[in-house]
Amino acid sequence: MLRHDYWLCQYFSISEILQKAPAKYGRAFLHTETDADDLVYFILHQLDVIKQATDKLYAYLSRKSDEQREDRLRPEL
Predict the structure, then answer these.
(1) What is the pLDDT averaged over residues 63-70?
(2) Burial class (CB in 10 A: 0-12, 13-18, 19+), 32
(3) What are the residue ranges spanned by the domains of the chain?
């Protein structure tokens, strides 16, 4: 994705998601191997992982934005 200038992907991590559910990755790979090398299973799994990672990034950015907004509204002592 980085090679094709999807710059946002450099800010999210899929490894944490894959580590939490290694069996899902394995099943997607196994389905591909046992169904005449049909990559649909694996691609759908990877797209789901990317969506989860993107959602986590947006949640993090939203949380940080809220924190900064609160800090700006907080009176200085």
Answers:
(1) 91
(2) middle
(3) 12-68
